[in-house]
Amino acid sequence: MKATCWMGPQKMQVREVPDPQILNKRDAIVKITSTAICGSDLHLYNGFLPMMEPGDIMGHEFMGEVVEVGSGVNNLKVGDRVVVPFPIACGNCNACQAGAYSICENSNPNAYVAEKLLGHAASGIFGYSHLTGGFAGGQAEFARVPYADVGPLKVPEGLTDEQVLFLSDILPTGYMGAEMCGIKPGDTVAVWGCGPVGQFAIASAYLLGAERVIAIDRFKYRLDMAREKAGAITINYEEVDSVPDVLKDLTAGRGPDHCIDAVGVEGHSHGVLYAHDRMKQVLRMQPDRPIALREAIFSCASGGTVSVIGVYAGLIDKFPMNAVMNRSLTIKTGQCHVHRYMKPLLERIQKGEIDPTFIITHRMPLDQAAEGYRIFNDKLEHCEKVVLKA
Amino acid sequence: MGTSIEATANATSGNGGTAPLGSALAERARPRAAAAARYQRIANEDRGTGGESLADFLGVFSIGLGLAQFLVPEAMSKICGIRDAEGNKGVMRALGAREISHGVAILSRQQPEKALWSRVAGDALDLALLGKTIANPENNRGRALFATANVLAVTALDVMAARTLSQQPRTIANEGADKGIIRTKRSLTINKSPEECYAFWHNFENLPRFMRHLESVSVTGERRSHWKAKAPAGATVEWDAETTEDRPNELIAWRSTEDAEVFNAGTVRFERAPGGRGTEVRIELEYKPPLGKLGSKVAMLFREEPGQQVMDDLRHFKQVMETGEILFSDATKQRGMHPAQPDDKPVQL
Ligand SMILES: NC(=O)c1ccc[n+]([C@@H]2O[C@H](COP(=O)([O-])OP(=O)(O)OC[C@H]3O[C@@H](n4cnc5c(N)ncnc54)[C@H](O)[C@@H]3O)[C@@H](O)[C@H]2O)c1
Ligand SMILES: [Zn+2]
Ligand SMILES: [Zn+2]
Fold first, then answer.
1. What is the pLDDT of residues A202-226, one digit of tens each?
2. Which of A187, A309, B125, B309 is most exposed, with minimal Cβ within 10 Å?
3. What is the secondary structure of A70-108 as a DSSP string?
4. Residues lining ligand 1, CB < 6 A?
5. A37: domain range?
6. pTM of the predicted structure, to 2 decimals
7. Range of the domain at B144
8. What's the pLDDT tens digit per position in A277-293?
């Protein structure tokens, strides 16, 4: 089959590789119809996440048709159309049973390495380095899906791929980002980053009853989308002296009640602190540039919530713990527990409460995945989200 | 308020004292004495692994930094404020190679304290070179000063970790080391009842399902079993074992028989985890590799760090109990390094 392989930083290649096989009884093989490139893939693309090997198949947002099931899968049959959640989760461990699927205790076969870096291991993830298990990803013609009796969601008739594809990751992720805030009537929410995750965080904050959502980015076309499609008030951080000051003004001194970081390790900014972060990143002394996170903490109203859905890869410097502690902030974070949100969000899509297709700007054949990565990474051609058709 | 403290002072505290655990609390709020004593015992015996985790971190850091120096020496020189980046490429590369070898040594646990002290020596070298850089007016002082500050910070960490590791407390894991006995213990919580975990383990023939180095175990008598383990190069090691203690749903202990070539003994305990979390499984292993060839084969079985092997086995036990089988990824299905990509050989389930 054809698959998008990581061959080194900024080197993606669609290559001919062996077809996947059933490796465990609870596996299914899915013939992929649509798959997408995620901001998380960019962290791998740019070499910020450790433990990649040349030849690793990328991709964790995918859907398609079941073509084979293992002997332990009773709820799916050949021909079913499914969306696959990006965390791999067993459904049996204490974490899964508490609904915390992305910290499944059984799904990372390289748990012992992850433990060294994180203290405890988190779940396995498709196409997301050997640190999360070394699973082949879904930017390919076929994928093997472990624990297929737990993860994949059957798609009801009458919905297109594009309407449901994002249930695999970014719609639930944006939603979880907003849900973690515990929004109450009258609340103002600020969202850093107007990538696909940020857009869905904005939309979800409104679905969950926010009074106002303020979005921050520097790309005009992304801010336009946030305003026109998701309903945010927008700030271009390149055009203001201080984002926290503007946020203070917009909330008459209170600060946003909740702040969502939808940027993660590759935060961008200007000035000395940025140069410092960037240099330490190059030196491998600090893998992350926690610019948006620092700003979110600094801006958040006292007693408020900082919800972190942007991905972080390692240690960060100059973390304003004094602000968190003295101002009673709550930090909530996590890889999305996608399984938990798929059904309820599918219902919202069916009822017309949200149309997730608004973020798609690029549709390309799988063959052109490398080009898709370049366009999405460099934010060319007003790119917001690339969907690959296999 | 209500309950008097003295009234409940009794012998349940387990440490010979008279005051109950949590004597400042009303009786209702106090921990259950027996359970608390059990955990206190673990806390007293278990010293953890000393500075190991800081050492791990430095290992990873070393490799990362080393790779950067090795692969992009010019860029690294520039970052450190060195003008003649081209001419300094060789030095940078050498420094990088040194960092990598330190990192690998620390992570692979071959005498980590030695590797760490050699890191400290390496840091001193870095500092000396950076000193020269600052002194040379050709170079960018701001950058070099900045790099120096970072190296200094890392040096402090290195010294700290090396110190901790050199005076690592005696733990159950290294207790018998001078007598050639290797001991290790690990624990994990499994979302099944103690009864279920005990029953599965009690049938020793199940052990090879989650202990990857075992080829087979056959039950040969009421308390006897015959074990066959895989050794490198296709060889096998065999021994007989007897069950020395068997408390239903609680504990199983076994040891190799007198005439076995390989002394080894193990205990596994099953205790109900709090709040419906299943079972706390604790395993202790002890073995003494005999001298000679066979010994080194056995040592290989348990890899460099016996604790790692035991932890892997426990994790697999958990997977088998909770999910029915051990999960593979495309990369881990294969031995050695393999990309996250399907293999072309048909897979045997
Ligand atoms: N928690 C999860 O489960 C989960 C799931 C999916 C994605 N993610 C993460 O979410 C993040 C965003 O993903 P995406 O697909 O939207 O990526 P993206 O790259 O399309 O979007 C990131 C956006 O952040 C903006 N940005 C950079 N620095 C900023 C700053 N200082 N202030 C404000 N905006 C800034 C960029 O301009 C860009 O528009 C990534 O870190 C990704 O890994 C997390
Ligand atoms: Zn993603
Ligand atoms: Zn699980």
1. 999 999 999 999 999 999 999 999 9
2. B125
3. -TT--S--TT-EEEE-SEE--S-SHHHHTT-GGG-SSS-
4. A 38-40, 42-43, 169-170, 173, 192-198, 216-219, 222, 237, 262-264, 267-269, 291-292, 309-311, 335-336
5. 2-169+336-389
6. 0.82
7. 52-166
8. 666 666 555 556 788 99
